[in-house]
Amino acid sequence: MTIDDLVEQLRDRGQRATTARRAVLAELLDAGDTHLTADELARRIHAHHPAIHLSTVYRTLDSLTTAGLIAVARFADQPVTYHLATEVHHHAVCARCGATISFSPRVLEPVARRLERDYGFRADPQHLTIQGLCADCSARSGQSRGS
Ligand SMILES: [Zn+2]
Ligand SMILES: [Zn+2]
Q: Does the reported pTM lie above 0.70?
């Protein structure tokens, strides 16, 4: 996936590839698995494009979300974050320390098959977060239980 691929997707959806849209897509591409808030994005974009202001970034995020190029992710009480919609993934979030792991949609395939077989339900999880304890925290809670 390159910025050119993303610009092409944008045009396929009948959207113009404005400087702001390109800049937002480029930053999200750069961020990979990291989810950025609108403020973080605006700060990064401002470094390269001082003319693009926060309000433009917000408007651009809205239009790119509507166009289906980017997805919104929200963790508990944290501010809304954004990532490329092509990066389909889910998260396991540690309820104790807040660590998040991204995991592949393949992990959920057996669950989806079971749901369809047993309940006739066709699951289409978009951006799931599963709560639990990360490896470190569960090791620690295991120790405290053992002592
Ligand atoms: Zn995510
Ligand atoms: Zn943890």
A: yes
